[in-house]
Amino acid sequence: MKYFLGFVKKEFLHIIRDYRTLMLLFGLPVVMILVFGYVIRNDIIDVNVAILDHSKDEVTMEITNKILSSDFFILRENIDKSADIDKIFRTGKIKEVIIFEAGFAGKLEKYGSAGIQLIADASDPNSASLVINYTQAIIADYVKGINMQMSRPLQIIPMVRMMYNPELKSAFMFVPGTMAIILMLVSAMMTSISIVREKEFGTMETLLVSPLKPIHIILGKVTPYVLLSFVNAVTIILMGYFVFGLPVRGSVILLLAESILFITLALSLGILISTFSRSQQVAMFISAFTLMLPTILLSGFIFPIENMPAILQWISYIVPPRYFIVIIRNIMLKGTDFMHIWKETAVIFGMASFFIVVSAVKFKTRLE
């Protein structure tokens, strides 16, 4: 028993002295609780809306003020005509457009009812449903308040329209996000073990004595996987179209070109990870662990980024799938052209270039 207690004491001391083990035991649970607690939310905040008020009377102003005085909505733009609705939705900044019909107050007083049209961007059906439900609840509360002072009950009838996904199919949200996850994880993991495998198998010497420069070796490693991952991308697009009915309203050529660019980014990131890793197991662990959670939680795939705390929103700016998911949804669901996604494309291109250059610099020109 004495020897056993001594052995247990030794193990405790070993764990306490190893800061990496302590971080895994106590740091990781705290971080995961905070991240999941702040990211996984069923409420909405700071939703950007636009208002088209054909009436501009006292009642419409009261309803507008009641909607905007909540913690849920922010007025981003007042629009003057219905033709602007599709245009502002394509920017991706507006989640809902609220339209008051002409003569709103007069119809409410004369006929006892008036209509409000609520149009939501349903490329993310979960968020669209929440936004519409919140807006309807605020309108219903306003109607309840004025009916308490009226001799006859009044009605304000919301007419709901879901843009780009009228049937609220969840596949319209999950297929683009799943495509980003698959291309990021599979591509990064495939390349993250490539250089490490050369070291472990002892074939690095052949590369080191070859006339190839580090950048040529990096590109040589990436190119075959670009083609193989491109086949994956095409397969996902075809399955989304034929199996789940996901439309491709924009340019197919643009969609495929953007997919190749994102694949290149993912592969270059995998190469960068492999230059820091000394074994295939470490490379696979780093690529899977450090890429999976951010891709799922911080890319806007499932949980709206605008609902997250400011610090997580800032972190999401360095998560590549965030930009690719926006590109896919815009091309496939909204039919937008390059002018609406050039910023996201530029970010992905910049990230890919950065990772390739850093990988070339970090690439070891000799065995250690």
How many alpha or pi helices? 15
Largest sheet: 5 strands, mixed
Structural class, judged by helices and strands?
alpha/beta
Summarize the amount of helix as a percent range.
55-70%
List SSEs in N-to-C order.
HHEHEHEHEHEHHHHHHHHH
Radius of gyration: 27 Å
Task: Write a short abstract of this structure.
By secondary structure, this protein is an alpha/beta fold. The chain has helices spanning 2-17, 19-39, 58-68, 84-90, 104-111, 125-147, 171-192, 194-201, 204-208, 214-242, 252-276, 280-297, 310-316, 320-334, 342-362; strands spanning 47-53, 73-78, 96-100, 113-121, 155-163. α7 packs parallel to α11 and α14 (320-334) packs antiparallel against α15.
Walk me through the structure:
It is a single chain. With 368 residues, this protein is an alpha/beta fold. The chain has 2 domains: 47-163, abc type-2 transporter like fold; 171-362, no CATH class. The chain is built from 15 helices and 5 strands. The protein has helices at 2-17, 19-39, 58-68, 84-90, 104-111, 125-147, 171-192, 194-201, 204-208, 214-242, 252-276, 280-297, 310-316, 320-334, 342-362; strands spanning 47-53, 73-78, 96-100, 113-121, 155-163. The chain has a 5-stranded mixed sheet. Helix 7 packs parallel to helix 11 (252-276) and helix 11 (252-276) packs parallel to helix 15 (342-362). The longest helix is centred in the middle third of the chain and has 29 residues, at 214-242. The radius of gyration is 27 Å and the shape is elongated.
